[in-house]
Amino acid sequence: MQQLHTVHVDGYYGSEIKCAPHMVFIAGGSGMTPFLSILDHLKALADISDREEMSTDDSELPRTLWVVWTCRDLEFLEAYAELLDAVNRCSRWKCKVWLHFTQAGTDDAGYDTEDDDTQTEPDDLSEENVPRSQRFYPASLHHHAFSGHNYMLGLPLFLGTGLGCVLLILWVFQLKMFSAKSFMRRAVLLGAGALGAVLGATIALYVVQRWNARKDTEGNNVTMEVAMGEMEVVGLDIPSPAPPSTPRSMPTPAQSLLGRRFLIEKERPDLGFRLRIVHKEIRENFGVKAEVALLVSGPADLQRDALLQARELVEPAFEVHQKSFLL
């Protein structure tokens, strides 16, 4: 049977893989990237064995796989939902996957924060990697898109104020003498100018808002037709030159697979609780002499917590393989 000895990735895991009977993967954010390569490697070995109808030795493939992945980029989870599902359903081993989707600012656990300056991968908190909002235009045109009416408030106010000032100037030119009556007229003109400014600004702002609302309605209708057309093209397996503009309310196949196959928890993982579950099940089913490899990749806080929790578990003990993002 052909063996795959290396993982072709840009990073610290481009070396020979040493499989263990029981493998536990704990990753934060983009730290899951090398582990995804390992899982893909193991799935490839299992597929080769199935195609050749050969029985694989126990030392070549693990007997259990455990995955704990916390990430704040939902699209990152969706991108590898198919691989995780294939590994989870493989009959060559027993697998359990825990996925945690966390958003920025929920707490300061630091499992996938941008404060860790040892990361070499793009941080998951960047504007390009946060879960996309419901937009119908490509990312390259975001800075051209209309973002609201607030930046146009100065235009109607300027027009209204200018209209009031012009009216005030015209009335002042009609004053022929500076008398008590003229002073009263000045007060009246000042009030009229202020009223004209307010009315002009209100009318101009109302017209602008109505005009933009009508344009947005027409544009959304056209964009929805384009999005539906792209979905039909994707269904026919015809590649589209433009990125999909499918809104969030219409799930893609990856989104549907992720939500259907996995329970996504919206909180930080309790590593102590997870590791105790893994330790208890391995001990009950495989004995106290089972060989367990714990592979941790991600920010420093995640590695430290996993290491501290693993030290408390013995018989069987976890053999920790700690990987950081140091260059």
From TrEMBL:
Record key words, sorted: Membrane, Oxidoreductase, Transmembrane, Transmembrane helix
Domain called Ferric reductase NAD binding: residue spans: 23-114
Feature: compositional bias, Acidic residues: 109-127
GO molecular function: oxidoreductase activity
Domain of life according to the entry: Eukaryota
Region (Disordered): 109-129
TM annotation in the entry: 151-175, 187-208
One Pfam family hit: NAD_binding_6
CC terms in the record's Gene Ontology section: plasma membrane
The protein's name in its UniProt record: Ferric reductase NAD binding domain-containing protein
Taxonomic source organism: Peronospora effusa
Lineage of source species: Eukaryota, Sar, Stramenopiles, Oomycota, Peronosporomycetes
